[in-house]
Design a protein that fits this description.
CATH topology of the largest domain: Rossmann fold
Strand content: 5-15%
Low-confidence stretches: 1-16
Helix content: 55-70%
Strand order of the largest sheet: 3-2-4-5-6-8
Number of domains: 2
Largest sheet: 6 strands, mixed
Order of helices and strands: HEHEHEHHEHEHEHEEHHHHHHH
Structural class: alpha/beta
Shape: flat
CATH class of the largest domain: Alpha Beta
Length: 309
């Protein structure tokens, strides 16, 4: 047996990785729900591999819990599974039959690219009629599609570092127990394919987009958002709450806590560093509101998201 073959066998015996696919579907559904979509669809991997099914179930169940309906793309025959040119007319016909506007989740970026191609052939506009979201944030795919495609990002970099550390110890002769590394979805990278608003009020739509884009760069105040809406503070607050279902302050805090979660999963920054990075003055304050929102401490959240089964 060659050295490379022996090493591969050793690696396979010592670790493997898992992706939390159900949570990926949940995150995708919540992303669209937060954007106030009321119609949803899912297109899985052509061969119905288990992780694709789990992503669809997570998406569908989350949508249905919110009282909405999710349209599921049907199973493919053998020819359609192996030949995109055979399947494409069927997908285009199905996409045209969907009620519009609709939020569509594709099981992976490659599948999302096929959805976008089918939309072009079927003369369906993206994102105005169908908003398309993929998985993996493969920039070679996402930046090359038309329009550019939004995608679910994961903790793959952090997981890769953990695997590299594990392999390094194995190669140094250390005896280690078999480990399972869990790759978890962390956030959505928004590009043009989902950059549409379901908000009927243009000023509130602008305010929401302003919050999403500016929260990462500065600490927003309610007054900043009110100025974007362009009305009195009281009237702006009432309109925002009636349409979005959250106050302006609650929406700002929701986006900021989402960034905290991303940094907890994707970086090794300390809690104090994350506190400063996200614009919170005191770690104690962030710890209190984080626990209230997620029912656990930030350390426990990080450990849970990086946990080994």
């Amino acid at each position: 047996m060659s050295v490379n073959r022996m090493f591969t066998t050793l690696v396979c015996a010592q670790y493997f990785t898992l992706f939390n696919s159900y949570a990926c579907g949940e995150l995708a559904a919540q992303y669209f729900l937060n954007r106030l979509y009321t119609r949803f669809a899912f297109i899985g991997e052509p061969h119905d591999i288990y992780w694709s099914t789990e992503r669809g179930e997570g998406f569908k169940n989350t949508v249905e819990k919110a009282g909405m309906e999710c349209y599921m793309y049907g199973k493919l025959n053998d020819r359609e599974q192996h030949d995109w040119s055979v399947e494409q007319p069927r997908m285009g016909k199905w996409l045209k039959s969907l009620p519009k506007p609709i939020a569509l989740f594709a099981a992976m970026d490659g599948r999302g690219r096929q959805v976008l191609d089918a939309c072009i052939d079927a003369e369906i506009t993206v994102p105005d009629e169908i908003a398309v979201l993929g998985v993996d944030n493969d920039e070679l795919i996402c930046e090359a599609t038309f329009p550019t495609m939004s995608s679910v990002e994961s903790s793959r970099k952090q997981t890769g570092y953990q695997i590299a550390e594990h392999l390094d110890l194995l190669m140094r002769g250390c005896r280690l127990k078999k480990r399972i590394f869990v790759n978890t979805p962390t956030c959505i990278i928004t590009r043009r394919s989902t950059d549409a608003s379901m908000i009927p009020d243009p000023s509130i739509a602008r305010a929401l987009e302003y919050i999403r884009k500016e929260t990462e760069h500065k600490v927003l105040q309610v007054s900043d958002v009110v100025s974007v809406i362009g009305s009195s503070r009281r009237f702006a607050e009432i309109r925002f709450k009636n349409i979005v279902g959250r106050t302006i302050l609650e929406e700002i805090l929701r986006i900021r806590l989402g960034r905290v979660c991303t940094l907890l999963c994707d970086t090794n920054l300390s809690i104090g560093e994350i506190t400063r990075e996200c614009g919170f003055e005191r770690e104690s304050y962030l710890a209190r509101i984080f626990k209230k929102r997620f029912d656990c401490s930030m350390s426990a959240y990080r450990k849970k998201m990086r946990s080994q089964i």
